[in-house]
Amino acid sequence: MTTRTGPPAPEIRHVTVVGCGLIGTSVALALRAEGVRVTLADHDPRSLSEAVRMGAGLALAAGEPPADVVVIATPPSTVAAVLRDAQARGLGAVYTDVASTKGRILSSAELTGCDMSTYVPGHPMAGREVSGTGAARADLFAGRKWALCPGPATALLAALTVTELAALCGAQVCLLSPYAHDRAVAAVSHAPLVLSAALAARFAYTREGADVLALTGRGLYDVTRVAGSPPELWIDILEHNAEAVADMLEQVVDDLAAVGAALREADGSARWGVVADLLVRGNLGRELIVDAYARRAPAEGVELEAA
Amino acid sequence: MTTRTGPPAPEIRHVTVVGCGLIGTSVALALRAEGVRVTLADHDPRSLSEAVRMGAGLALAAGEPPADVVVIATPPSTVAAVLRDAQARGLGAVYTDVASTKGRILSSAELTGCDMSTYVPGHPMAGREVSGTGAARADLFAGRKWALCPGPATALLAALTVTELAALCGAQVCLLSPYAHDRAVAAVSHAPLVLSAALAARFAYTREGADVLALTGRGLYDVTRVAGSPPELWIDILEHNAEAVADMLEQVVDDLAAVGAALREADGSARWGVVADLLVRGNLGRELIVDAYARRAPAEGVELEAA
């Protein structure tokens, strides 16, 4: 057991989750499993009633006392408006969100006049290639990182409360600046999804597709797994992290174009330097990715990483 | 049980495998499990003795009677020379190889004066991201496709014999022209490997790599899995299928560059058409890939697909 220094963890007894999709309902299920009272809201009554049926909590009723934490689990482009509305209604003492990008949401929240002292921007690093309420799982965050990106005005107690919420879900918090967070997720998540989609797209609309795909193996299956993710959600995510994703894509395109050109050159062993260089760098990068993935195993205590 | 029409399957009692890497040793192990006598050769005495220790067969001795089939499991660039040498030594009645490309090997074999009537170019669609003798498994080909690309001079009996060999390994044969084969594997295997390497390469040599990779999830892990493949083998494969791989890479680069440019554009909902189009095509392609992968389950009998 890791010894935790600093103030004791704030106690969380009641959480309101706004948005009963994959992430919101999974947070609710994880909290319910820890005995937390959960109230739920969603603009789609079917998602709400499905989440209630799954045991994720009760529908938020008018006149409910404020929750210890309000978790906003709606698409990135809606977070600032939902936050402002929730704060205006006094739904909770502390607010957090789970959107995949942070920089632009933080600016929008400031610009729309949200109370920035009680808002702790967050992003649990977990997901599935299937979406929707029905795909939610109580253990979705077990052993995962949960990024928190507090702004300059965020109160310490608010940050500690959301850290406790992440811990109740089985995740480990890491602290990042919104900028560092957005660059990192562009690299490990958003740009890889675009790459995966660009490869999978080659197999759409092709008459010969079936013949070609008869020879498919696990390689193509794995490389294109995230290409099955819901476009409507990802258009929103990519819009919110456009610059960082574009930077990463352009670097990948440079490498691919160089290899393509090398493959077109007339025979000559020198041109193979380009191909060998990419494959060797690919091996090195893959080793680091495998190491990082292996370190993702569940650990006790809460880890705070300044960045 | 599928009823097979045509001549009865030729009986295979003795096979010689030249090249005791992952594929050659896996073929040998699969055949040994079916009671076939296997003799082994490799220019590296350590690989040879490791394969013998694993029970893949006995080392090929001088004066051995010709095998029913000789399986050439050496890198693509060496196949034609190894085939010519094996035929000159009278090592077998029928010859096949397992290289990932077919067109250029077939031309080289013709140009170097091989007997094309007893040679059946082949390619079992199986592999692992780890290579070498020790990674071999008797069930590597179970339920997999095994492409055969006979040339105009290939004798029917030779093709039937290699079809039986593939069936003994648990695989299903599909017949393809060398050109169609090479385009198909560029699409489902070779270009995806280059893409995966280009993404993984972004995480090599970066000081900030560790911080960024702390947020990694299964998406990046899956997309970069094949980037761990051995560069020396893949340089050889890409050299042999350069044009088809370049065609595929250029199409992917076009899509990625268009999305990169759209992400750079000033705000405007029209530009999101480019991003949405790619993500939707990615979804469609992914569906077809998942279907094709699911159909890869083991099936009885031998399937012959003309293409």
UniProtKB/TrEMBL annotation, chains A, B:
PROSITE patterns: PDH_ADH (PS51176). InterPro entries: 6-PGluconate_DH-like_C_sf, NAD(P)-bd_dom_sf, PDH_C, PDH_N, Preph/Arog_dehydrog, Prephen_DH. Residues 13-297 form the Prephenate/arogenate dehydrogenase domain. Belongs to the prephenate/arogenate dehydrogenase family. NCBIfam families: PRK06545.2-4. Pfam families: PDH_C, PDH_N. Keywords: Oxidoreductase. The keyword Transmembrane does not apply. The keyword Oxidoreductase applies. This is Prephenate dehydrogenase.
